[in-house]
Amino acid sequence: MGQQSPTRIGFTGDVMLGRLVDTRQRTRRRAPDAVWGSVSDQLRELDGLVINLECCLSTRGRQWQRTYRPFHFRADPDWAIPALESVGVDVCALANNHVLDYETIALRDTLATLDEAGIAHAGAGETIDEALEPAVRSIGDCEIAVVSFTDNTPEYAADEETPGTAWIEIDVGDEETKRRVREALDRARRSNPDLLVASLHWGPNMVTEPSASFREFGRWLVEEGVDLVHGHSAHVFHGIELHDGRPIVYDAGDFVDDYAVDPELQNDRSFLFVLSVTDVGEPVELRLVPTEISECTVSTASAEAATWARQRMRSLSARYGTTFEQDGADLVLELDTG
């Protein structure tokens, strides 16, 4: 009997479906899947898809005013849920700095509409206990468990009685952080997953590399049994480090949004990160498919944008000793997990 084909699971950076993205979809009556542009077929061909959902899904609520917040992101679930379903989104990481932008009622709508659609989520809930629960899905031959944390916007943090996010300090010396993360990982392991993912919305915007404390934290997560660190928040992608054969994607950049583009940092350019996993749960390859955002739509990167992204990723990752092969427009990272 031949060996089964690997299970291919996609990971994206920020998927922000609010503000102008939402307005464009509704006022122009675009099909729900239009937001995925020329990448839609590649997304559908994956066995699974994990995203950071950088907005709430609701038409209710009022903008958070309890503390100063310059931006508020909300998408109408009538088109946003069909859009997520159209490309087979399996898991949404919700521990971020926008899921409470329209207060508790919109957070509750987000949780309810994802549940109704059968899209798993992690990182936010009615209480911190719920926010620590993993998202668990069977994808192909792979059982995947995702935990989700953020160090952004502490006022959005859940506690024993208050809805919100799974908020932590990114500090391996912080005992409360280690206790909370280990609790979430222990819960995730109860499902006996083949793949354990930590999805982290961490750090400030528009920084080009992780801090030393973030690198230490990412390596600690791998040592705690995480198979993939899925980072996001900076709006620009960072380099990738391998630790004990496991990839640490420090930041996946942006995948869909309406943000102004910095001409130097090129925050409209990133990748779809595709992890291949064997039938015995071993990650064997991480493929980086270049993408770019234009007119509130993600697309396959142009030749010029793809070249820029590959060169930048190689440069950023070289400092960690990470090297890639090239396959067409894609970068390929072979994972030696033996």
Brief descriptors of the model:
Purple Acid Phosphatase, chain A, domain 2, globular, alpha/beta, 6-stranded mixed β-sheet, 29% strand, 10-stranded mixed β-sheet, 8 helices, 338 residues
Question: How would you sum up this structure in a few lines?
Answer:
With 338 residues, the protein is an alpha/beta fold. The protein has eight helices and 20 strands.
Explain what the structure shows.
It comes from Natrialba magadii (strain ATCC 43099 / DSM 3394 / CCM 3739 / CIP 104546 / IAM 13178 / JCM 8861 / NBRC 102185 / NCIMB 2190 / MS3) (Natronobacterium magadii). Residues 8-259 form the Capsule synthesis protein CapA domain. InterPro entries: Capsule_synth_CapA, CW_Biosynth-Accessory, Metallo-depent_PP-like. By secondary structure, the chain is of the alpha/beta class. It is built from eight helices and 20 strands. Strands 1, 2, 5, 6, 15, 16, 17, 18, 19 and 20 form a ten-stranded mixed sheet that branches. The protein has a six-stranded mixed sheet with strand order 8-9-11-12-14-13. It is globular and about 50 Å long.
Task: Give me the oligomer status.
Answer: single chain
**Strand runs, count:** 20
CATH secondary-structure class: Alpha Beta
Alpha-beta classification: alpha/beta
| Helix fraction by DSSP (H/I, runs of at least 4) | 25-40%
By DSSP (H or I, 4+ residues per run), the number of helices equals 8
Contiguous low-pLDDT stretches (5 residues minimum) are none
End-to-end C-alpha gap: 23 Å
Number of domains: 1
Write the H/E string, N to C.
EHHEEEHEHEEHEEEHEHEEEEEEEHEE
So, the CATH homologous superfamily?
Answer: Metallo-dependent phosphatases
Architecture, CATH level 2? 4-Layer Sandwich
